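Please review this one:
***
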Amino acid sequence: MSNNQATESLTNANTNGDKSRINQALYRSIWRWHFYAGIFCIPFVILLAITGAIYLFKPYYENWQESQYHGLSVTQEALLPNQQIAAALAEIPEGKLLNYRLPQAADEAVMISVQADQVWQVFVNPYNGEIVGKQASNDKLMNIVKTIHGELLLGNLGSILVELAACWAIVLIITGLYLWWPRSSRGVAGVLYPRMRQGNRVFWRDLHAVTGIWISSLALFLLITGLPWALVWGSALKEVRSFELKPAQQDWTQSRQQEHQHWRAQASDVFDLTPAVLAKAQALQLAPPVELSVANAHHHTWKASSQTPNRPLRADVWIRHDGNIEKQSGFAEKQLLDRAIGVGIAAHEGYLFGWFNLLLGVFTCAGLILISVSGFILWRKRKPDAVLGAPPARPTNAGVVIIGITLTLGILLPVMGISLAALLLLEFFVLRRFNGLGQWLGLQVNGGETSVD
């Protein structure tokens, strides 16, 4: 071999060695972020998965719950709609009309929502005006589940915590996919299905990774489509949209507080729901449930709104007191962004394409719980005594890559970006200055290797 060939061979070996070390350093850094994100996210992911799975069954549960107000005796002509509303308002002191829900059958009670100290749903027998039931909206099981899912029953603080957990869960999934990606041709065992005969630790590692790959795209979809509801991300989107030439009125809110404010603004103590308006709203055959609310009390205009959870089927129609249509708007008239978000929300809630959508939602929630539990068990099995068990820090030459990924995610997910900046400052100025704490957290730079298998 000539000197030139030997030099070239040595250079190639050094280059390959440098690339290998950089790849190992990048892998280790991503593994560390995956670990820390998991430690933070696991309790939130389990809670969100459980409440999300329950909420998927909202229409079925509420239909069953309201079945007690069905099967009424049809003994006479129905009362005028104004009389039905008056009966509901008389039941709730200082109440204002929020909306009148069209019954879907002649023997079904009319549900009238009344805004007072809170929103009340009053069920009225349309034939004699008798109150057959009432319930505070805040006390409904599915509304409680929704509030836990979105705010942890902590208001805006809880909403920010949920958003923070969702953003870090996105990081968790992306880093998990990188760690899972096969780097050798050892077959699909441990990649697409768990290995069952290689020990307890390998089984839990495979169960964690394999479950993650099967549900990763579905979980990312749920997390991303939930962002428009998030307090910070959703509010930022709303501010950006305010610069549009024709800013649209979005039909979702970022918090229960905003939802309540919307209801209070919509409630009216002046109403005149004529039989012509009611008959026209019924004749439109909008996707149920359909709610009538006062659009303009002065001009006696009502708004018929489909509130079907399958949002692409929603439509709004403005009806004058004489039954003539003033205007109407359907899903197709919405801006492209609103349509995309509407489709995403419908799929997120499990209503876009029937029972299979619901099944996918339950499957994803169950997978998220399994990932979280298996990740916790895996951590406990790997964790050395007297330390947190994070992968040890190493000197790295992959800083540019890590910084680029971090900045990108920080811009796209501002809550995560802010939290990450705070963590880095805390680590640099506080945690690393206490050797015992730094070692427990795994922050002390270590050149040694620790197996990830």
About this structure: The radius of gyration is 28 Å.
